[in-house]
Amino acid sequence: MSPIKIGILISGGGTNLQSLIDNIKNKYINGEIKLVISNKKEAYGLERAKKEGIETLYIDRKSFNSEDEYNEKIIEEFKDRNIELVVLAGYLRVLSKEFVKAYKGRIINIHPSLIPSFCGKGYYGEKVHREVLRYGVKVTGATVHFVDEGTDTGPIILQKVVEVKDNDTVEQLKERVLKAEHEILPEAVKLFCDGRIKLKDGKVIILR
Fold first, then answer.
1. Where is 126: in which H helix or E strand?
2. Would the annotation count 13 as a binding residue?
3. Residue-range domain boundaries for the chain
4. Which one is the CATH code of 4-206: 3.60.20.10, 3.40.50.1820, 3.40.50.170, 3.40.50.720?
5. pLDDT tens, 40-76?
6. Is 169 known to sit in a ligand binding site?
7. pLDDT tens for residues 147-159?
8. Formyl transferase N-terminal domain location, by residue (predicted)?
9. Is 15 annotated as a binding residue?
10. pTM of this prediction?
């Protein structure tokens, strides 16, 4: 089976991108990252991609008159490269409805909590971990899900639980959740590339 062509959207350091690069190199994932796009010029994830010879693009939202035009440009770049799967690996923008429609059932996102807890509008990055600690929950974790028209509302593919310790700082909790992200994002991408994910009644079934 030919490798699935993957497009990645990032906004920051790209550690989840690196986990995908590593798992493709070691043949765990039957995929090929064809393009990495960032909305942030200084995102270190772009450097990670360049080091591996992966094509990169910085697309500035300010260069477009509207959010729709900006999203159309990204869709155009992905379609030009026949992208089959889009992965949001720390991408801090909400996709347009047109984008979601264009790649329906083919957009995967990683979120640093156990959805449906601590997710939705305003819940991203360290804000999630800060709220987890403020609320005093005993477990948190990471979730990989398909993207739909809502924010963090798409069908859940995989989740991993992370214990919240009494003396945790935001940074300590973030590091442990990030480790969980690096485990389940490659696993979810592998399942997609192997054709083992089925959507039924709005839920994900993993084929064995």
1. helix 126-135
2. no
3. 4-206
4. 3.40.50.170
5. 999 999 999 999 999 999 999 999 999 999 999 999 9
6. no
7. 999 889 999 999 9
8. 5-189
9. yes
10. 0.95
